[in-house]
Amino acid sequence: METVQGLLTRRCTRVALHQVRYKKQMYRNRKPPTWASQVALDMFDQYYKRQFGTRWSSIRLALLSEPKHAALVNNYGHAPEAVCAYLEALGAVDIMDANVQQALRPVRRAKRGVQGAAHVATVQEETKTVEHSWSEESMYDDDDDDVPNPVTGEPGLTGGVSGQDSPVSLPDIPTNLRLLSMADTSRFPQAKPDPDGILTYYVLDAASVLPVLALNLKPGDIVLDMCAGPGGKTLAIINTSVSLSGIIANEPKASRCKRLNQVLRLYLQRGLSVQKGVKVTSFDGCRWGKMSPNSFDKVLVDVPCTSDRHSLTHDEKTNIFHVSRLRERTELPDLQVKLLSSALAAVRPGGEVVYSTCTMSQMQNEGVVYMAMEHANQTSNILTEVADVSNLVQFFQQTFTFSEGCRIGALVLPSLPNNWGPMYFCRLRRIN
User: Fold this and answer.
1) What is the number of other CB atoms lying within 10 angstroms of the CB of residue 22?
2) pLDDT tens-place string over residues 385-411
3) For residue 241, what pLDDT band results from cuts at 50, 70 and 90?
4) Potential cystine with 36: which of 240, 291, 319, 384 (Cβ 3.0-4.6 Å)?
């Protein structure tokens, strides 16, 4: 006769076997986890394929590839010229200088054409005329020191040979803004502090500087950077070295505001923030239009967005496409419209607002601009117009790949030769 202990042992064995079979069946039927980056890629394939057509495959490949990096040299560190020389020794190229030289090529070709025509004419003239033409010829020597300053726009930049070159229209680029890039996707070494403990350069996407340049800063301007964290664009504004009357760097999110303060502390000498009139705040950006209406000359609104490149490579917990952030993602366009409308109310009549994102979505870019302009008009009777940024596009066409389908503003598309962005920016001017 079987003992009680034997019965219990057999029963426990059957229960254990049953649990094993149940777990196997449960795991067999379970779907694999869906990562936020894969959700983002699936949505991009569905949406951007309609937007870009056959071009999407190359943009997709660039998004999934290693991006290029640029170094914004800190003008307030020790010996920025030596820092530039150090970076150039590593193989970096000055983006600003390279585009200036590219933009001046039509001018030089035009000068060579004038020089050649003058030489033919002098063959048939008297000695006095020949001597005079020689002196004129020396004015068009192909030496870089004789090329007019492209920033100040002195005479000579809009010249051209009729029927050969179109006039050159250069944007007002700050002469001392140094932005260096590697020819490939090599990373810059970590910036080291100078003798004063100030970091010498800040690594960022070169396209991030375009919204700052689109602000067209002038001496005496009061600037609001409405969504300033983590601080790269604020640092670029300061490094333009334009004598601004004040800069308010606002970041409502606590973690990004902490990073913003850290950047300003690491890249600016002690007391320089106060001297430059830099003030860090942490208000809701949607409130600035009511708190400080008609108060700023320039406003930069780098709004939260789906951040296309980061969504494909970012940490799972902070990815905007994570299932826990579904509501936040769907409400992004509404938030963007509110932020831009607030900026249009905060800027003075005649002032300018630059709206920027790091997404290629037409809804979050051009769609938000149109809706915000209409919203500002209906709610606050504010009239705005879209300002032209084609001079920036023309100036940087050798560095960035710009979308040809933008109706307003400009969009930098990722591409394997120029793997920057995406970065959209649009400049609005308040009329009344």
Assistant:
1) 10
2) 999 999 999 999 999 999 998 999 999
3) confident
4) 319
% pLDDT > 90, the chain: 66
Distance CA 84, CA 80 (A): 6
Tell me the domain boundaries of the chain.
61-66+206-430, 69-204
- Residue in this structure with the two tokens 């800069």, named with its chain if needed: 247
Q: Is 258 marked within a binding site?
A: no
Dist. CA 423–CA 308, nearest whole Å = 10
Burial of 202 from C-beta contacts in 10 A (0-12 / 13-18 / 19+):
buried
- Catalytic annotation present for 358: yes
Asked if residue 251 belongs to a known ligand binding site, the reply is yes
Question: What one-character-per-residue DSSP string does 218-286 give?
Answer: -TT-EEEETT-TTSHHHHHHHHT----SEEEEE--SHHHHHHHHHHHHHHS-TTHHHHTTEEEE---GG
The annotation status of 228 as a binding-site residue, yes or no, is yes
**Structure-model confidence comparison of residues 50 and 16, the more confident one:** 50
Q: Under a CB-based contact definition with an 8 Å cutoff, are residues 349 and 311 in contact? A: no
Q: Binding site annotation covers 230?
A: yes
399 in Cβ contact with 98 (< 8 Å) = yes
- Catalytic residue, candidates 84, 257, 305, 358: 358
Q: Tokens at residue 190, please?
A: 């970590």
